[in-house]
Amino acid sequence: MRATWKPHEKHGELTARGDLPTSVFAYPKERKEPMTDASHVRNAVARFDQVTDVSDDERELAFANIKKAAKHYGVAMSEDDWAELGRRPSTGRTSADRKRSARAAATTRKKSATSRKKTASTRKKSAKKAGAKKATRKKATRKPTARKKTTRKKTARKKTARKKA
Predict the structure, then answer these.
(1) Beta partners for 32?
(2) Which of 1, 9, 22, 25 has the most CB within a 10 Å radius?
(3) Cα angle at 125 between 120 and 127, to 5 degrees?
(4) Is residue 113 part of a domain?
(5) 94 within a domain of the structure (yes/no)
(6) Containing H/E element for 108?
(7) Dist CA 88 CA 96 (whole Å)
(8) What is the rounded distance in angstroms from the CA atom of residue 114 to the CA atom of residue 93?
(9) Which domain holds residue 63?
(10) What mean pLDDT do residues 65-74 have?
C-alpha cells in the first residue's frame, strides 16, 4: 500500500491537534497517532496494536505511514509487516488469567460493599460512643520550659576566644 504520510514540523508555539494536517497521522482517516518527530514515531509503533475499530486495510496504510516516517526521522524498525505488530494489545496474560483476576475483583467488591453497609441506628450508636470518649479524655497541658537567655556580647566573646585558640 502506498503511504500518505508527509513530514510536518511547525516551529514556534505548540499547536492543537486539530491544526495538524491528516497527512501527519499514521491513521489519517481516524486522525490517530500523529507523527511529527522521532519520539512520536516510536510511540506509534509501540501503540500500533492498541488502536481499535480499524480495518486491516487501514492498519496496512498505517504501517506504511509509520515506516515512511521512521525512515525520515531515522528510527530503526525491525518489523517488515503490520501483522508482526499485531491487532490486539499484548499484555502477556492468558484468558484464564484475566477470568481469574475478574472473579477475584468481583469478590473483593462484594466484600467491601457489605462491610460499608451500616444501618442508621448503628451509626448513631457509634457516634454516641465517640462523643462519650471525647468528653472523658483529659486535655494534655504543656508546661512552659525556661529558656536559657544569652546576650550578644557573650556569643561574640566565645567567637573571638575560638579564633585566638
Answers:
(1) 27
(2) 25
(3) 95
(4) no
(5) no
(6) helix 95-116
(7) 17
(8) 31
(9) 17-84
(10) 94
